[in-house]
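[job 0417] fold request received: Alkyl hydroperoxide reductase C
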Amino acid sequence: MVRINSPLKPFSTDAFRNGEFLTVTDTDVRGKWSVFFFYPADFTFVCPTELEDLADNQAAFDKLGVEIFSVSTDKHFTHKAWHDTSPAIGKIQYTMLGDPTGAIARNFDVLIEEAGMADRGTFLIDPEGKIQYIEITAGGVGRSATELLEKIQAAQYVASHPGEVCPAKWKEGGETLKPSLDLVGKI
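[job 0417] inference complete; emitting structure tokens
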């Protein structure tokens, strides 16, 4: 079962990005922050709203040094066709991974075997290749890029400030906590 601090498992797959096909592997992900954003299928309903939301916030992800990988069990050819025909998906500049065998979705424990599609799963991977954030929602529940950005900022802050933690509702620049015996029972 995939959990926080689980390592990214090996994979190699075909992808579509900025009008080109490419191969992406787990080694391409190491050394930087990345998001794996699983969704059920191309040419559907909730999925394009989520992917467009990510695309609309691309500059904010870039500022944080985070690479986005959207993943569905469609082939990279289908990603290109969707990109070329949908105004919402046409905005995408991040990498769209094809996972027609479901291998990557299985690696993250989000494959719905009987449907051959992935659940809506979001995974933040740190530069060491370990999972630092997981969100999985029901098929009809879309995710928010703004909320994801806040989680990334908190994870990056904690990673670069050992001994500090981010409380509920933390926003970049906000107060953090330094866990200690003195705080026990006082919060």
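[job 0417] notes: The mean pLDDT is 96. The radius of gyration is 17 Å.
[job 0417] exit 0
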